[in-house]
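User: Sequence in, structure out. Go.
Assistant: Echoing your sequence, followed by the structure tokens.
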Amino acid sequence: MLQVNRISKSFGPHIVLREVTFNLNDGDHVGLVGANGSGKSTLMKILAGTDKADSGSIVVSSGQWIGYLPQDPKASYGSTIRELLISNQPCFTGHGTNDFSLKDEVEAKRILSALGLSYLGLDTPVEQLSGGESTRAQLAGLLLHQPEILLLDEPTNHLDIHALEWLEDFINSYRGTVLLISHDRLFLDRTISAVYELDEDKAGIRKIPGNYSNYAALLAQEKQKAYETWKDQEAEIRRLKADWINTAEQARFSERSTKDSKMRRYAKKVAKKGLAKKKRLERYLESPERIEKPMDKWRININFADTGHQSQQLLIAEQLSFGYGSKPLLDELDLHIAAGDRVALVGENGCGKSTLLKVLLDKLKPDQGTYRWGNSVVLGYMPQKQEILDLDLTPIEQIQRVKGMNLTEVYHFLHYFLLDEHHTNLPCSALSFGQRARLLLARLVAQGANFLVLDEPVNHLDIPSREQFEKALDAFNGGILLVAHDRAFIARTCNRLWELKDAAIRDSVPPQEWSQSDV
């Protein structure tokens, strides 16, 4: 059992966590949700012991230990994958040993294979791993040792769909306690039985039984109820105001229309009554029970411009091939995208999805074959690793590079992507991954593209931002080619599926053939 008692944490004047109290019982599988900046990752770090709370306490049952996967882990716990698996995580407290039996080795290889790392041997140097490979290797270490309490911060960011589904099955059969942060709605629906919600504007934490869909439905009901309460309140304000004004007007008219002392005294009484009604209205307006209009305060605002005239044939590729050395990643591909197509490119990690996008964007030269875009196509590209952002430039400078705007216009524009004046004047190197993702979206909107090439566009975006992105793409009348592992996002934005496997593409693949999720 894990008991959390009145945890609070601040960074300077900014309060991140306030009086957070909750329990995790043995075997609980819980999702931790909240907007970016609500303190989810900070709370995870405190629970794992890699950060300290300003106040409060954490109690873990005797004999239990915590395994922790950070959102952006640094693989510094051994020189090889074998040593990484043995040492596990920073919160490893000596409950295990340095032994790595034959049984451990077999199980480690099985887990690494399930997570898409079958091509890496246990003696592979850690320094050779990419960021995604390092994350998956450290996740493998946790799943191998199976701590009693498992803390996972965005474990799905670097997993392909098949690895995602394997992890879902693993967690569902896991007997220990799991607390996880994820922006993959389907993953949450399939792995948790309760939600803990953090709200940056409220103290404490709220527990909602059920999966994420149940939580989302409850939020929608609460929002609708709050909106109806606000409408009733506004109607009552209008009624009180009209009553006061009518009474005051009646008093003034009566006093002006007669010189009879009795009638004038009556008019003054009516005036006093009107004054009392005015004070009643003022008290109502100042009442602490009065609510403000419900707003989606932390949703980004994305509005792609009308794309105008488009070619009927957006992309044609013939006999397209590319490989590194003797290994072909793409082998004589014939591809076609017409107006109205929204294509999701799926496949296992390492199969060449990002490579294909780079070939089509002229960032890599094909070994053979040709491709051509329609005459009116204006490409907009959002790379997975955010490498098109110059980390030395500010967000203001990034936007002004793609569209002529004055300073006031840029401030106003970036505000819609939740980048305030402070962040817009920082170099991009000082921004979080989530802030950079929102900046890349802003950049796409600013450049007025009519065909979007998106490589994992929703990584680092919270769920409300993903949903807002989905709505924007739904209203976008241009073409789309995207690589994504968020199955709900794919289902809501695409009408065609390409599966890249063994250097070939299967077109118009039925969802059930590549994913048991039936997106």
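User: And one key feature?
Assistant: Residues 89-97 have pLDDT under 50 and may be disordered.
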